[in-house]
Amino acid sequence: MAKLSVNVNKIATLRNTRPQLNIPNILRLSTIALEAGAHGITVHPRPDHRHIHPADVFELAKLVAMFPNAEYNIEGNPFHHFVDYARDVRPAQCTLVPDSVEQSTSDHGWDLARDGDRLRPVITELKSFGCRVSLFVDPDPHAAEGAKKVGADRIELYTEPYAAAFARGDESVLSSYTATAIAAAGLGLGVNAGHDLNLDNLAPFIAAVPETAEVSIGHALIADALELGLATTVKRYISLAMAGSAMR
Exposure check for the chain: N or C terminus, fewer CB within 10 A? Predict the structure, then answer.
């Protein structure tokens, strides 16, 4: 079954509107998610600290360590002081994303033909800390080949194009995700997925991409939690991941 890592950035975004109150409490809500069965916590610290703050990175690392079966995933641009976090925290996984400082959210995968030489030494360093390294990529089998060449352990499929197509009633784009995942698995790479996955499109995606080892979900999950409660929402997403696996 694909594991669920809960991205808690949006919790931090809301907290930061009135930081002096520390409401909502990111540690408390992350604890609820983990106690509800989430397999991990994801954070994406950005240089402008728009949501996750440096202190959050360290406090959440201590929290996740209290759950022996949970993993901590730090994602971000490796050229934005990202390596410092990994060196100090030693997360289970580092997900490298090619976002610029001004981007509101991640919106494309790595161009490994262009960026591979820059990434290779960073990946080597991150792996020396004991971190598994995943590269954020577009659904293209050539991206899997590039990830393998630079030393990554996994790819994370950028799923916004799939989510947008699914909302239009068009699932034809799934074939590119399936092909990329098959190519990655054939090269010995693990496969993650994330971006705009939600209660409607998660199970069909996992059914079509059975190689998926982990999904990282934040925006939709936190929005659903406002209606359903966080623990119920986490359990529902896990059930959908299981349903997707059963559909294979």
Answer: C
Place of tokens 């991409």: 209
Report all structural domains of the chain as residue ranges with CATH numbers, in order of start: 3-246 (3.20.20.70)
- Show the beta-strand stretches assigned E in 44-202: 71-76, 93-96, 132-137, 154-158, 190-194
Report which of 4, 3, 22, 2 is spatially closest to residue 14, judged by C-alpha positions: 22
Which tens digit of pLDDT belongs to each residue from 183-216?
999 999 999 999 999 999 999 999 999 999 999 9
The catalytic position among 51, 71, 156, 195 is: 195
39 given a catalytic annotation: no
Read off the pLDDT of residues 49-107 as tens digits, 9 standing for 90 and up.
989 999 999 999 999 999 999 999 999 999 988 899 999 999 999 999 997 656 556 66
Quick one: tokens of 202? 């998660």
**The residue to which tokens 């947008």 are assigned:** 164
The catalytically annotated residue of 44, 156, 211, 214 is 44
Instruction: Please say if 195 is a catalytic residue.
Output: yes
Residue 94, SS3?
Answer: strand
Between the alpha carbon of residue 232 and those of residues 6, 138, 214, 227, the distances in Å are 13, 31, 19, 10
Q: Is 44 a catalytic residue?
A: yes
